[in-house]
Fold this protein.
Amino acid sequence: MSRRVLLFSTTTGYQLRSFDEAAGRLGVEIVFATDRCHQLDDPWRDRAIAVRFHEPLQSLAAIEAEAKRAPFSGVISVGDRPVVLAARVARLLRLLGNAPSAAAASGNKREARARFAAAGLNVPWHVSVPLADGLSDEVRAGIRYPCVLKPLGLSGSRGVIRADSPDAIDAAFARIGALLKRVDVRAARTGLEDEVLIEDFIPGREYAIEGVLTAGMLQIFTVFDKPDPLDGPFFEETIYVTPSALEPRAYVDLIRLVEEGARALGLTHGPIHAECRIGSDGAFLLEIASRPIGGLCSRALRFEGGRSLEEILLRHALGEDVSIYRREAQASAVMMIPIPKRGLLKSVEGIERARAVPHVEDVQITAKPDQFLEPLPEAGSYLGFIFARAANVADAEAAVRDAHASLTFTIDARISVMT
């Protein structure tokens, strides 16, 4: 009987092709479940099951019907929005997965911090403020500057703003409120669109941790250093490099923190993407998402034998032991190309020059001509990605920076509002 994996994602995603290619190599069938119009018959010709992440009962019924036709062997979720529905499906079909409550907590900054604090982990002072309530005198009295404002349910630094004064916090709160009222944000219907988290700013360096949980045990794939300082006022992630330059003791402590955080959330099975900061006051968990690293960034993580992250995750979803797989020895870097200003993308020059930079593996421009672009904090995407591999981290990092310097983006800033 053919092995089938049910993969949940939003309607589009860079990783889906990589999963599809990995499934072909493994002889596995992937069935996509995506949030799309129920009235159209397979609009993207991918034979996906049409679901609504905010309508779990109807979605569960559709998936259960498909499972009765041909059973599934595993479940994977790509992106933050599908993780709760994927967890409910895993429970319904008696497949390996997280508890729905744990998946929900991983995507809710307020709930995650409550669980981290209850487990005795470092948590900054924070308060969750409904947009409708505004910044009351009581809330203002507890705020220490600098602080950071974050939408509860958005990811990728979208809507995250540092404020260094009362005037700055008023401006940031209003700006986030406007973002959360946008049609694309409201359409996600996560139930987290009406609150803003305010917390102490944590000075220090940031790290991203990739791994997978099996029966509550964490296997680390890699730790990415973020060499660019992320001090605000916005927090645009640009470069990830691996292996990490952390000292061995700090590395072990960081992994232990992620293990304790995953346990506090109740996560037990599946990929995790964790974000941490380490400074003079110790290490703080910013988040542990119950899904893999997003988009094309997964290409920066390759395993011995040329195996991709998507292949390892498919094997894990099928119940295989993936502890035998190790990250390849070469250093790796990825740059998420930042958006410099608002406007329409008119042209990109220098792509071949950038690809010719020593150690650069590829340059992928994912933004389309005449696409409307916005920088953070409103941005929900990047211009593209640059990948490099070298014998050491310094060369890999320098390669993506040099490649980026070879690119010229022409953006028509006269188009300054979304239409």
The longest strand covers residues 205-214.
